[in-house]
Every structure is written in structure tokens, then in C-alpha cells.
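Recall that a protein's primary structure is simply its ordered list of amino acids. Everything else, from secondary elements to tertiary packing, is in principle encoded there. The following example makes that idea concrete.
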Amino acid sequence: MSDRPIVGITKPQDGDNLAYAAIALAVRLAGGEPERLTTGMSWREAPIDALIIGGGSDVFPPHYNQEAIEDAHYDRGRDEMEMYWARTARNTDLPTLAICRGAQVMNVAGGGTLYQELEGVFEDIDYPSTLPGHVLYRKTIEMSDGSLIRDILGKASVKVNSIHKQAIAKIGKNLVITAREQNGVVQAIEDPSKTFYLGVQFHPEFLTYRRKFRRIFDRLVAAAHEARATSAQSQS
């Protein structure tokens, strides 16, 4: 067995390859071994030491008791896979990082809801929709004292990217909101009773040129190392 913990990374069966490559690189730099998780494989049996739920298309609204948007693109199979892993990871204390759509899946899997549209709910939501805007635009988030995300990033506020058009509404059971934008949009959620169960609305895989964002992946892999060592001790 490799010394590198295996980090399962969810993605759609087709597409989102750039985001997956960026996450996989961040995992490797942190000392982990990335393992792709898609609906085209036996994903329930994947032997992983940590989990990353990646970004992508919208969560199917009936999962949180809302109507689907006509002509919207949904990936029902991926929803099933990621809901399973979000709940399994939480029940087994598997170190988990959820990114953008992943954070929304994490919340819905815990019984929470989403805002399908930000307009009319929040002010100051003139976020970019072009590729240059997604690459360059930054907004400030404020993090809660004592939270995992603040401990990792090392300060009360940071600037992050903006590649989303939905947001967390009602928070899921036993999850807590630990970062928001100034307009109230949720940017991080956690389960403080778990070793590492963190969802972020922004995309740290595209911010790894900054040391503080690489620490998110460092801490996930470190938690996976510790969990693996604990498991080995209990079995010996």
C-alpha cells in the first residue's frame, strides 16, 4: 500500500476536466493520491482515505423540495453518488472537502436547502459570468472565530474567487455556517463534531498559487494520514 492516502474526487462522467486536474494537482502537492470518482464505475466500493466533492452542474431541486427549472441541466446519477458519499463520509468521519456544487450537495445531504437564484435574495451580486471574470474577480469573505476554515486560512477575512450562481439557504442539520460574504451569501459550512468536514462555495483549486489556499488541501491530506494511521492501529 502506498504511503500516500487515497483522496477520492467526484466529477461528472464527462467534462469538468480542468477543475478535476486542478484539484488532483493540489492533492498531489499535499502528499495525497487522487482517485477519480464518477458514475461510470463501482463508486460505492472505492477504497478512499478522504473525499473531495467537486463542482459542476446544479443539484436537482426536488432533493430539497423545490421545483426544477425548465431546460436546466441536471446530473441525477451524480447527485445520487455524491449524496451517498456526503452522508457516508459524515457517518464514518471520513475527512471531506466539498467545493462549490459540492458544498451545496453537502448541505442538501444534511437536510438543508438552496437558493436557485441569487437575484432578489441578496444585494451586490453582480458577479462575473465570463471566463476572464471567473479567473480575475475576487470578493471578500468573513470567517467565524474558532472555525476550521479560519484556522486553516489563518485570518478573519480573505478574498476568494466567484464561480457560482446558486447559494446555500437553510443550513442542514448539525452543520454550521462559518464564512459569509458581506452581502450574506454563505461561503463555508462545517460539521464541528467531525475531524474534517468542510464545504466551501469558492474554488480553492484555482487559488493554489497562494499558500493559504494550498493549506486547505494540506490539512485534508493530513487528516487522511491520521485516519489511516488510527485505523491501522485498531486493526493490529
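The chain has a mean pLDDT of 93. The domain at 6-235 is CATH 3.40.50.880 (Rossmann fold).
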